[in-house]
UniProtKB/TrEMBL annotation:
SUPFAM superfamilies: Nudix. Residues 41-172 form the Nudix hydrolase domain. This is GDP-mannose pyrophosphatase. One of its GO terms (biological process) is nucleoside phosphate metabolic process. It holds the Pfam family NUDIX. It comes from Pelistega ratti. InterPro entries: NUDIX_hydrolase-like_dom_sf, NUDIX_hydrolase_dom. Signal peptide: none annotated.
Amino acid sequence: MSDHLIETPHSSTEIFHGNIIHVFKDTVKLPNGKIAPREVVRHPGAVAVLAITEEDKVILVQQYRHACGKVLLEVPAGKLDIQGESPERCAFRELAEETPYTATSMTLLYTFYTAAGFCDEKMYLYQAHGLTKNSQAKADEDEFVEQVYLSKEEVREALMQQKIQDSKTLIALQHWLAQ
């Protein structure tokens, strides 16, 4: 690690406390000794699930994303919002909530920060194994999703046409296509 690049926390003031995020106005001491401002969004973290059916189709969900102002095509995902819930357990839950499938196991593929320049949200990307179509697919009451099933060829076409713009989904699909 390059310790000479580290910024040292100097002060922190919470300026917004929401249901999902908290926003802070921080100051840091730079490696050169100067003080600089930082605005930071604190987030509890989230999971995403790459789930492939027996027919070799990826399970995606379409949902409207208010912040983007459009319907996006995404892998099933959700935030860590149950106290003490592990990311793996959250992945099982989100798959069952957003799709008609459950899984027998999950493999952690990657962890990554979704927007490291201003947000500490850490995403855990899992691949689901042993899918069974036995879930009631009950999304949260404020979530409206539709499932979409795409083959590798259909995913390639959707990527070429820029129909998939969600970062966690791009990472998951590129992993699947590379297998």
